[in-house]
Design a protein that fits this description.
Blueprint: H1 2-19, H2 40-43, E1 46-48, H3 51-56, E2 57-66, E3 72-80, E4 86-95, E5 101-105, E6 109-113, E7 118-124, E8 132-139
Parallel strand pairs: 1-8
Antiparallel strand pairs: 2-3, 3-7, 4-5, 4-6, 4-8
Length: 141
């Protein structure tokens, strides 16, 4: 019995010592992880900012055009997918040709969407530098 206990203890100690702690020997600059997971806002034209909006809202289309003075006008058709009245907030971030914000971000405006309805949200850039945009929707609190 003592011999079996001694053997078991030695075996357990051997396993513990051989497993050790895993250490990383990487130093210096490392690449970012999960770069494709949370960057929809960088390339999408219409994004939903929370799970409630994701469940309740979609777009029926987005139209953009240049005004006579060169500014970009965006009209997003925001559609309520539910059979109940909801309240959401919508804004637009205008970007340059490479997708970087040009500092032209509209304030959030509130849209009240009745059952299964569609409402237009209209945005106009402040200057003619805007090439791209992202329309963002979140639940109103």
């Amino acid at each position: 019995m003592k011999k079996m206990l001694l053997t078991f203890t030695a075996l357990a100690a051997g396993v513990a010592l051989s497993s050790g702690c895993k250490t990383s020997h990487e130093t210096g600059a490392l690449p970012p992880e999960h770069t494709e997971q949370y960057n929809l806002e960088n390339y999408g034209k219409f994004v939903l900012l929370d799970p409630g909006a994701q469940k309740s809202v979609t777009t029926a289309g987005i139209q953009d055009r240049r005004l006579d003075d060169g500014r970009l006008e965006v009209v997003a058709k925001v559609r309520n997918r539910e059979n109940r009245r909801i309240e959401v907030q919508v804004n637009c971030i205008f970007k340059d040709a490479q997708g970087f914000s040009i500092g032209d971000e509209t304030p959030f405006q509130t849209l009240i969407l009745t059952e299964n309805s569609t409402e237009d949200a209209r945005f106009v850039s402040m200057n003619n530098q805007a090439q791209r945009y992202t329309v963002r929707v979140r639940q109103a609190r």
